[in-house]
Amino acid sequence: MGAVTLLLDTHALLWAWNASPQLSAAARTAIADRRNHVLVSPVSAFELAIKHRLGKLPDAGPVIAAFAQSVARYEMAELPLSSAHALRAGAYPMTHRDPFDRLLAAPAELDGLTLVTRDPAFADFPVTKLR
Questions:
Q1: Burial profile 80-109: b = 16 or more Cβ within 10 angstroms, e = fewer
Q2: What angle, rounded to 10 degrees, do the helices at 99-111 and 83-91 form?
Q3: pLDDT tens for each residue of 43-84
Q4: What is the pTM of this model?
Q5: Whole-angstrom Cα distance, residue 106 to residue 84?
Q6: Measuring CA to CA, which residue among 23, 6, 3, 16 is closest to residue 119?
Q7: What are the two backbone dihedrals, phi and then psi, of residue 77, each rounded to the nearest 5 degrees?
Q8: pLDDT digits over 96-122, tens only?
Q9: Residue 110 CB partners (closer than 8 Å, separation 6+)
Q10: Residue 66: enclosing H or E segment and its boundaries?
Q11: Listed residue (96, 130, 118, 93) closest to 108, CA to CA
């Protein structure tokens, strides 16, 4: 398999940073492969901050505080979002209402990224996925 550009879903990002066994062996291998480019969306930072504030991720404070440093430490890059991404995210059918998922799927679709996710909700989006 040649080099690919990966976009990590928020849970995959947390699992990668915490070396969680919930991250599949295939995903772990792809993320560790230095030929691949690994992207982190600012949408994940937004999602973490909101879920932490709401009490859904009570232990995420340190992750949020060190977000940019962790992206750099793990040799990942931040995904630049554009109005084209936002417009595509808004144009998806309303069968899927989660704005975080929509804003992760849109750049994956438009930019030909492989989305690293185990979330079955992404089955409805026209993106390449790596579980």
A1: eeeeebeebbeebeeeeeeebbbbbbbbbb
A2: 120
A3: 999 999 999 999 999 999 999 999 999 999 999 999 999 999
A4: 0.95
A5: 9
A6: 23
A7: -130, 155
A8: 789 999 999 999 999 999 999 999 999
A9: 84, 85, 88
A10: none
A11: 130
